[in-house]
Design brief:
Layout: E1 9-12, H1 18-29, E2 33-38, H2 41-49, E3 54-58, H3 66-78, E4 83-86, H4 101-129, E5 132-137, H5 150-170, E6 175-182, H6 188-201, H7 205-214, H8 224-234, E7 246-249
Parallel strand pairs: 1-2, 1-4, 2-3, 4-5, 5-6, 6-7
Helix pairs in contact: 1-8, 4-5, 6-7
Length: 257
């Protein structure tokens, strides 16, 4: 399928590792001009150097001025942003009763406020040019809560509500707004979660992975590349009539429709 994004400019947040990096690489393979971003400039530049048409930017998006610096450098390199992939590190694992007061605000700040700032800087151009793709990398906890990932679930569910309302506002301007919800994808973040859960349960990491995979109908974790292919489709011309949607990429694990 021709995705129709060759020559488009894609800004992928937190794309020096994990799902963000996989999405950046997938968009680059489709011919997009990609802005790789992360806190470590040297790493971002190194990854960008491996892609056909890319630049790397080092920035801390959790600072008040971070989003503006990132967008400024991205547009200086490739012009206005056509595709914005919202992504960021998840909060620490915790159940609801383990959450500290200050962590609630920090979770919403990192997962909603930061992305609102990025959108405020990029949406006006998308709407004027009547073409844009906004995709947030979320979590399956948005549709089916995960007990020990309460902070992530609270912050990402708030973001999902924000994006659903935004999608309605900008749909007539040719801008789509969607969320892609990973299940158990084999990334460094999931490895850390498996190790933490294994420690609590008192068994090996291998045993924890086997137990987790057994709860997935496909009997395996997904790969970052599989997730990234779904992301590239949602960022494409081919997905022009899909908006306001939270799509799961979880191997059928979620118990809800």
């Amino acid at each position: 399928m021709e995705l129709g994004i060759a020559g488009r400019t894609a800004l992928v947040c937190a794309s020096t590792s994990g799902l963000g990096r996989a999405v950046a690489e997938a968009l680059a393979r489709e011919g997009a001009r990609v802005v790789v971003s992360g806190r470590r400039e040297e790493l971002a530049r190194g990854i960008a150097a491996e892609l056909p048409s890319a630049t790397g930017v080092g920035v801390d998006l959790l600072t008040p001025t971070g989003p503006a610096r990132l967008v400024e450098r991205a547009t200086a390199a490739f012009g206005p942003i056509d595709i914005l992939v919202l992504n960021g590190p998840g909060p620490r694992p915790a159940t609801v009763t383990e959450i500290q007061d200050h962590e609630l605000g920090a979770s919403v700040d990192s997962l909603v406020t930061t992305h609102h700032r990025l959108l405020s800087l990029t949406l006006p151009d998308m709407r004027r040019r009547r073409w844009g793709r906004v995709l947030a990398i979320g979590s399956s906890a948005v549709t089916a809560p995960i007990g020990d990932l309460a902070l992530s679930g609270i912050g990402r569910t708030a973001l999902a509500a924000y994006l659903k309302m935004l999608a309605t506002e900008v749909a007539a301007d040719g801008v789509t707004v969607n969320m892609l919800l990973p299940g158990r994808i084999a990334t460094g973040r999931v490895e850390q979660l498996d190790a933490a859960r294994a420690a609590v349960a008192g068994h090996t990491v291998g045993a924890e992975r086997a137990r987790s995979a057994a709860r997935i109908p496909m009997n395996r974790y997904g790969s970052p590349e599989e997730f990234a292919q779904s992301a590239a489709f949602l960022c494409s011309e081919a997905a022009a009539y899909i908006t306001g949607t939270a799509l799961r990429c979880d191997g059928g694990q979620s118990p809800v429709l």
